[in-house]
Hints:
6-stranded mixed beta sheet, about 35% helix, alpha/beta, single chain, Uracil-DNA Glycosylase, subunit E
Amino acid sequence: MTLKQLQKQIVRCTQCPRLVRYRQDVAANKVRRFQDHDYWGKPVPSFGDPQARLLLVGLAPAAHGGNRTGRAFTGDRSGAWLYDALYRYGFANQPTSEHRGDGLELHDCYIAQVLHCAPPANKPTREETLHCQPYLLKEFELLRRLRIVIPLGKIAFDACLRVCRELGYPLPTPLPRFAHGVLYRIDNGLVVMPSYHPSQQNTQTGRLTCEMFHQVFAQAQAHLSPYSFISQNI
């Protein structure tokens, strides 16, 4: 299976009845500000550079972001933070992302999610999270140049550790705990560096500042630079 084939499989997924109902209902009963938009309303696939060494793992599509546009972190405020940071540190060709046809390209970076359907109140059940885990596991396997993973939030961090365990990667002892910007080295050479998610809940309360978020990507850039990563830092 290729990454492209995997994403086609994800878009057809109907494993979680609650999430199917919710994403379809959101797409049918649009909020006023997006009344003229055609909602995607399906599972949102991962995307990016298939030769990526950097993997970002988000929680799930936003109800009126990815669930509307069909691309992760596209058309919402979390994406505004994320793509600005990716652009500043050379992982994207532009600092904004509003819709699937806006010309965004990722360089040496791939964006996946724990869940591919928007969950009500951004709170998936454990069963729903585990239903999507095989997709993330397969992405770890198919990204053959992968060197660093940035999980955005604790749920994403825990999902990445589960995947590492399933793939047989030797995990550090004691087991890594979620902490913003801390770099954990897995014994197979992979690095996992969690970050707070750039949700409004974190950015508007000051839990996550722009400087804190950018520092994560500066560290990622520095980690990759010894391996011929070409910086486009601005």
